[in-house]
Write a structure and sequence with these properties.
It is a single chain. It contains seven helices and six strands; from the N terminus they run βααβαβαβααββα. With about 240 residues, the chain is an alpha/beta fold. A six-stranded parallel β-sheet has the order 3-4-2-1-5-6, with helices on both faces. The longest helix is centred in the middle third of the chain and has 24 residues, at about 70-90. It starts with 9 loop residues before the first strand and ends in a 9-residue tail after the last helix. It binds 3-methylbut-3-enyl trihydrogen diphosphate (IPE) (2 copies) and magnesium ion (MG).
Amino acid sequence: MINKDRMPVHVAVIMDGNGRWAKKRGLPRLAGHNAGMKAMKKIVDHSDKLGIRYLTVYAFSTENWKRSIAEVSGIFRLLVSYVNSDLQELVRNNVRVKILGDYSELPEDAVRSLEKTLEKTKDNTGLQFNIALNYGGRDELRRAVQSLAFKVRNGQLAPEDITEDLISAELFTGSINADTPDPELIIRTSGELRLSNFLLWQSAYSELVFPDVLWPDFTPEEYEKAIEDFQSRERRFGGR
Ligand code: IPE
Ligand code: IPE
Ligand code: MG
């Protein structure tokens, strides 16, 4: 049973395995991404029910541009239809959407839909739903370093004053964008045991759980199991 008194504040999810899910059924990869979108919707709802404050999903990495144009544009098309059809519901459920990653590089209609979603949900006070899109942990750190370097050059900051908090603030999860604490729990489905450039800085002390299901098969029950697994861990943060 889930212990409601020990809920993680921030859960991050690497939604992996859509392609294999489709392949197993003899379907095109996009059918897997479509099924994955449906699984994601249920996890957003369930996070809200469980009282989780921040949910981050890895939807598209800076490396995913290596895929075929058909797959990449199909993924964005599905995303646009998700945000358009679910905007009312997100607003009704008091969900605040934030994007991690430089989404300006996405197709124009996707950028427009995302901006509308950000704008319409910005004052909501319930679950914060972060969508990592064109996101890479190294790209995020590169941008943070660059921004701090500019501040040093402009005389706004001395190199010896650079702290971990200042670096955190410059990330997509930092105070000027998503203002999200580090995730206590990172879940990756599909059996792959790696982070694939996800939240490299923020995951320093995250607990990692790897449910052995493909993302479209990741149900609220599986989600609760992952949280129970998290709750059974002893977190030490280097102490004894
Ligand atoms: C995750 O599923 C979704 C994205 C990366 C966009 P995949 O498409 O990576 O599925 P597999 O890993 O090929 O099964
Ligand atoms: C990670 O999955 C990215 C997302 C889930 C969006 P990938 O399928 O791209 O990762 P690798 O290639 O297996 O490491
Ligand atoms: Mg994959």
